[in-house]
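Q: Here's a chain of 570 amino acids. Please give me its 3D structure as tokens.
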Amino acid sequence: MAKPITGKTHVGERREKRPNGDIYIYERITAYDEKARKTYTVSQKIKGKIKAGTQEIVPTRPKKRKGEKGVVDTTRRHTGLTDILEWVGRISGIDDDVRSSFSEGDAEKALSIARYWIGSGGNTLPRLESWQVMHPLPYSEAITEDVYGNLFKDVGRNEEGVQRYFSARAARLGESPVLAFDSTTISTYSENQSEARRGFNKDGDGLNTIKLLTLYSVKAREPMAFSKQPGNIPDVISIENTLTQLKCLNLEKPLIVTDNGYYSHKNMMEFALRNVKFLTLVDPNIVWVRETVDELRATIADMSSTCPFDPSICGATSSRMHQFDRIRQRSRNGKVAGEKETILRRLYVHVFYSPDNEAKKELAFRKDLLELKAQVEEGKTEFTESAQKKIDKYLTYSRKGRGGRLKVGFNDEAIAAAKKYFGYFALVSNQTMDTFAALENYRLREKIEEIFAVQKGRLDGARPRTWYPDNLRGRQFTQFVSLGYHCFLTKKIKEVQARLKKKEPGKPKSLLKLEKKLENWLAQRSLAQILDWFDCIETTMVQTVMADYRWSTESVARDKLFLEYLGVDI
């Protein structure tokens, strides 16, 4: 439950370290603006300073009083980067959603840390206190190690606030959103994280892992919700809790897109029985999928089956009534618990063929078999389960005479049967869908892999960096908020680039030339480089007896055009 707004002011202390080592101590009075939903500084006055190498606070020279000539107060802050992030939080609704889900203090701290991570390129949190001295953030007090440690603990235990935020983000999607679902692993040396267990490590570093499951809106290009699980839980059994979570989000007819790591007969049945739309990549070696490939092989060969946005791929769709079998868990409507039940559901199989993929698959297949053949001839006897299956299926053995030399050959008939399906892949859904709309939705799912890379590489998410599971939950939530900033700003920059590529008639030559410069500049820079570029913009505010003055660093015409097209007013 959000903390009630009292209207009272808060007296705090701010310390600012100067280049010469002196630490200036300020008494700052802050209040909360209910309309703007942010904390602002009511007044600030200097109390004294601690000279470098000492511990004692000594008074500073008093400022001139009103009526005397000269400067009364002066501040200088880096505002270019923080103004852009403040705009992102306001326009995307992220700031409103966080503030409506948590207490005032926790919300301001979480938003400040989220902006710090994206603004600093994922620096570790001990550097935050010094970074915020020159970068205005929603939380005006110093964010020390104790402050963010307590925040992560409180947020991690406040599941109501976390789920309220997820629901608020989901409410902005509208009807029939397309959601990708995937997982990544967080490696750790820690013995305190009870969820860190030995499992499939996607980074391949051999450490215990914690699994992070994420729902991502592929059309809005924003992360929607996440959960964490022990690292030994396979992907294929992680879908059931997600289906329950979808009900909490109150989404209107979502379509869940997964890769073949989540494909199983049981999962498809769960989707079908819960009336949740799904689209998943399936293994083309499954018998009923191969039957569909054979059925559509001639249709796919036609020119009319060519993909309109990727001519290197052809595709076609076939529907089939698919049988699901399950053991009843409850007795109902004359059916007894423990009995086997058969359920029929209509599925749509989208089959695609790529000559390029066929050539690559065949080359890899040939290299693999030649390597296995050489290992068998050398006398190796221990193989992985998958390698042994290939040996039994595609290789032949013979010996000449008693105790003769082992001769290894190829089972050409089995190899030819396998090569028949090279280049084909299939998607399965439980709703009618255009063949290439299904392909487009699946390809958009791949964007979720990019956000995992961003979270680990740019938001300090490659390691837990906390002692306890609850703290990790709070830390990951704050990273999730920062990830929302990143995805929204990236999307808006893409929109600016698309606008620049459109050659609208009637524009003066000077504007067209400037747009071309901006287009080339954006194409050569990542989001982090763009934010670093605008971090040089400083705002100086000078208060004198007679008047107040404010000015910011000048910007070139190209930078001004970018901010104008983005919608940011600095």
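Q: Can you summarize the key feature?
A: The chain has 18 helices and 18 strands.
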